[in-house]
Design goal:
Layout lengths: L8 H13 L4 E6 L6 H11 L4 E7 L1 H8 L8 H9 L6 E5 L5 H7 L3 E5 L9 H10 L2 E5 L7 H9 L2 E2 L2 E2 L2
Parallel strand pairs: 1-2, 1-4, 2-3, 4-5
Antiparallel strand pairs: 6-7
Helix pairs in contact: 5-6
Amino acid sequence: MELLGSEPFAQICSLRERWRSCGERVVLTNGCFDLMHPGHIFLLEQASRFGDRLIVALNSDESVGKLKGPERPIIHQSLRSYALRSLRFVDGVFIFDGTRVVDEIRALAPDVYVRAADRTLVDLDSKELCALRAVGASIEFVTFLEGFSTTKIVERIRSGYAIGNKIS
């Protein structure tokens, strides 16, 4: 399974430096991305439009469990990373173990940080916000597609309904 995994963080930092030296703007977003759905795809595609390169910080299995509970993630981190890397608008993926990306923001110094608009500036973790400000990153929010979340999809499957269709 690990052959499908993400790039090592040091490699992502090296790519970031190469892109910076070429004058390319780097966008960073992060999340669990468990059970890839249209909301995830839309967020990532929109995020990629804020720069030349998109890096995704992917929560490790351990950190997803801390954030979402003991039954999550559903999909192993190496497979979630593989799915993300398969998208044409994603240029790099790394897995992080914490619940916040403060150190990673400081190391990567993205030009832009993107979140879905179901969050606001007030909702951002204060340490992440300080790190983003310290590196001079702009913060952007993209439209949130209502009705799509892994938690809601799991609930619908358990209740016998898929998105828009009853499961036989």
